[in-house]
Amino acid sequence: MANMRQIAKQAGVGIATVSRYINNTGYVSEEVKAKIEKVIEEVHYRPNELARAIFKRNSKIIGLLVPNISNPYFNEMALIIEEYASNLGFSIFLCNTNDDPKKERAYINVLQGHRVAGIITVRSQCKEEYTSQDIPVVSFESHISEKVITVATDNYTGGKIAFEHLYESGCRKFVHVKGPDFSEAINARSLGFIESAREKNLSIDIIKFETDFQRKMLEANIKILEDIEKFDGIFVFNDIAAATVIRYFQQKNIQIPEQVQVIGFDNSYIGEFLYPSLTTIEQSVSEVGKTMVKVLIKMIKGEAIKQRNIMIQPKLIKRETTVGINV
Ligand code: XLF
């Protein structure tokens, strides 16, 4: 049975070049590739099981890049993706990018080096890095390119629902606690909220958080939350940030929902544990997670995906931080 050494000899190239070609770990010129492929055909070279997986990129490993694993929405998403993918025979290689494009780029390289079968990327800030390689990619929220399928909640509509609910609940002085600007989803939520207010000739004040969650979230934002009690309706861009805002009011002895009403976004599991429990806009993490795995596995199998942008509909989850009724 032929091995890499013999292939190298017959093709007249070094063994390192053959290895680079088979493992796709570096540059091999088109001319040399053609020579190696010809010898592989002639000698009926078949790599061993692991090498074959690498060679055909059927490693059955999915790379999952999340921006912030300490955000409950993303840790639940990772759990659902792992569970659903493993039932379909795939393992997960989990990477936390910390919303840092440099770290994301480095992880994309690592995943490519491990010849993963496909990648699910969440709130990505990279583009060419995904499209320059021939790996199937599904993206949550960020639109990367034509080749990459995007799955996202209809965030604009979610923002509108949040406004309508606060308005129906009697609020008239609104503030929006907005997350980082680089996120398409966060911006769309804000726009829906602001435009709905405009339709009623009302204006929205904005307070900005620089991250979606960090351990000392309240300490980091305490200054910018000063005076927030002058508003009566608050839309916070996600649930974990809403938990921070609720904590702030509790420390100041301000009653929710009697003095101020709060609505979050996600319907992550923490909402039910908060006191008072959090009214929020659901972006179904189970639907999002399963849809991404299903679509990615279809792509890995070479099936065509017609819908390039998959939109998940948001829904109001009425709990105790608002007084209005569920619509
Ligand atoms: O990127 C957005 C902001 O935070 C994401 O969908 C989330 O709502 C998760 O908490």
Q: What do you see in this structure?
A:
This protein has 327 residues and is α/β, with parallel strands linked by helices. The protein has 3 domains: 44 residues, 434 Repressor (Amino-terminal Domain); 125 residues, Response regulator (Rossmann fold); 129 residues, Rossmann fold. The protein is built from 13 helices and 12 strands. The strands form 2 sheets. A 6-stranded parallel beta sheet has the order 2-1-3-4-5-11, with helices on both faces. The chain has a 6-stranded mixed beta sheet with strand order 7-6-8-9-10-12, with helices on both faces. Helix 5 packs across helix 13. The longest helix is centred in the N-terminal third of the chain and has 16 residues. The protein is elongated. The site of beta-D-xylulofuranose has 13 residues, from helix 9 and strand 9. InterPro entries: HTH_LacI (IPR000843), LacI/GalR-like_sensor (IPR046335), Lambda_DNA-bd_dom_sf (IPR010982), Peripla_BP_I (IPR028082). This is LacI family transcriptional regulator. GO terms for molecular function: DNA-binding transcription factor activity; transcription cis-regulatory region binding.
